[in-house]
Write a structure and sequence with these properties.
The structure holds two protein chains of two kinds. By secondary structure, chain A is an alpha+beta fold. Chain A has two helices and four strands, in the order βαββαβ. Chain A has a domain of 61 residues: Alpha-Beta Plaits, CATH 3.30.70.20. Chain B is of the alpha/beta class. In chain B, 42% of the residues lie in helices and 18% in strands. Chain B has twelve helices and 15 strands. Chain B is globular. The chains are: A alpha+beta, B alpha/beta. Chains A and B meet through loops of A and helix 8 of B.
């Protein structure tokens, strides 16, 4: 199940009030980095052994577990292919994005 | 409690008393004992900290940055090639406003391979946005680490505490090690304004457009400009509890001096001894030891220079094709000042060659015998 907690948006009218640390001023919910992707993972759940390796290895936390099986959050998946590379049964394949 | 300890262990005790929570480091001569002792303290729980073993100095600093962003007080130590390998992440620490405190043992850069002292390693990181403190005794090392945590966390700017290889790192001196309760009173827990926090999820150090990058850098410089007063205030708070003050410079008999040495590190202590000897010989010498190099103590240098007859800057470092680095800095501090005393620049002690009281007497003899320097750089003791 996805449980997102949204960050409070930092609003400033003058740069004087801008935080000194370089940081996101609002939630990453609005910065959908999945738009960068040109290949996407597809999971053949029939061959999935529910080991959780794809979930653990995803560097963008874009694999979540739904009804005990992995699913891909395409809003944030950048298509790096680590899940497909690491999957022990090779039930994840990377397919070309076509729009 | 007074103990006889080496300079490296002064750094370790400083980190321990400052209650560093995360320490990540990679060993390099002459820094090794700093983290050896800290790892023992972590193992026997004298220090409640996470010690992260890493495969390089680049990774050591990366681990420190993650920990600092998570809100942990963070310490590391390195030297020479190790510091150079960290270079990219030094910009991350200051640009990201992460108040890491690092010990750096001044060791000459290879090649030729050297483990002995000079300042080119730390001074090559001059423009990375770190505070830099140069120490000349083991007591000063310990006191500086504890104060550096407070100064860094106040300003959100990282600190480098610098000491010479061997002449301080491996030299044993009596050090007054303060009690934990008193240090706790001086140094409250680290509370960053923002940190990695799942309940307020944010990304740090991400893409920053030209709309905001410029202002972030302006703010870093403005906070650097505040640093001298923050360091002095912190020094006064420290003095109230422990009787010792860090200060920006160590001004020794400069008031009436016809010749003022400008020095740093252990050479600055040798210079004091040379000043005493020269005074006995009738030469009115003084010594201005620069303790805080970044931010540069412009005001202090101008005050002393305004009263001095001649200035002799002694650099254990060199910017090839230019001059000694402290010499450049002093020159730039004085360029719009009047009166401007004659400024002499000396290079000494590269690669761990000793800088002795005799070296200072040679420097004094040259400076006093000439109205202004006859060479851009005067080399002390070069066999050529």
């Amino acid at each position: 199940m996805k449980k997102w907690k949204e960050a409070e948006k930092i609003i400033f009218t003058s740069e004087k009030d801008m935080p000194t640390m370089p940081m996101s001023l609002g939630s990453q919910l609005h910065n959908k980095t999945g738009a960068w992707r040109n290949i996407r993972p597809e999971i053949d759940l029939a061959r999935c052994i529910q080991c959780g390796i794809c979930w653990k290895f995803c560097p963008d936390v874009s694999i979540y577990i739904e009804n005990e099986f992995p699913a891909v959050d395409l809003d944030y998946c950048k298509g790096c292919g680590i899940c497909a590379e690491e999957c022990p049964t090779k039930c994840i394949i990377m397919v070309e994005e076509v729009k | 409690m007074k103990k006889v300890i080496m300079g490296n262990h002064s750094l370790s005790y400083g980190a321990m008393l400052g209650r560093a929570q995360v320490i990540a480091a990679y060993p390099i001569t002459p820094q090794t004992q700093v983290v050896e002792l800290l790892s023992e303290m972590c193992a026997d729980r004298t220090l409640d900290a996470k010690f992260i073993k890493v495969e390089s100095e680049h990774s050591a600093m990366a681990a420190c940055l993650g920990a600092s962003l998570a809100g942990a007080r963070t310490f590391t130590a390195t030297s020479a090639q190790g510091l150079a390998l960290m270079h990219e992440l030094l910009h991350w620490a200051s640009g990201g406003r992460m108040p890491v405190v690092m010990g750096n043992i001044n060791r000459a850069m290879a090649p030729g391979w050297s483990i002995w002292s000079d300042q080119n390693d730390s001074l090559s990181e001059r423009d990375t946005g770190w505070l830099q403190f140069y120490c000349s005794s083991n007591q000063e090392v310990l006191d500086t680490v504890i104060q550096a945590f407070k100064v860094s966390e106040t300003l959100l700017i990282p600190s480098m505490v610098v000491l010479d290889a061997f002449s301080l790192s491996h030299t044993y001196e009596v050090v007054d090690i303060p009690g934990q309760a008193a240090v706790d009173e001086f140094l409250p827990a680290f509370k960053p304004p923002f940190r990695l926090n799942p309940r307020d999820p944010r990304a740090f150090g991400g893409l920053t457009s030209p709309e905001h990058y410029f202002e972030l850098r302006y703010k870093l410089q403005k906070d650097m400009e505040k640093a001298p007063s923050v360091i002095e205030r912190t020094g006064r708070e420290f003095e109230r509890l422990f009787g010792r003050n860090l200060g920006l410079v160590d001004d020794y008999l400069c008031e009436d001096a016809e010749l003022v040495f400008i020095t740093s590190g252990t050479a600055g202590y040798t210079a004091r001894v040379a000043v005493d000897q020269l005074r006995r010989e009738g030469v009115k010498a003084g010594n201005l030891r620069i303790k805080v190099f970044r931010p540069f103590p412009f005001q202090k240098v101008r005050e002393i220079a305004g009263k001095a007859g001649k200035l002799a800057v002694v650099d254990r470092n060199i910017s090839y094709g230019h001059h000694g680095i402290f010499y450049q800095e002093v020159k730039s501090a004085l360029c719009n000042e009047e009166p401007k005393p004659p400024l002499f620049g000396f290079i000494a002690g590269l690669g761990g060659r000793d800088i002795t009281t005799e070296s200072f007497k040679d420097i004094a003899a040259y400076t006093l015998s000439k109205p202004k320097p006859e060479e851009e750089i005067v080399w002390i003791g070069v066999k050529l």
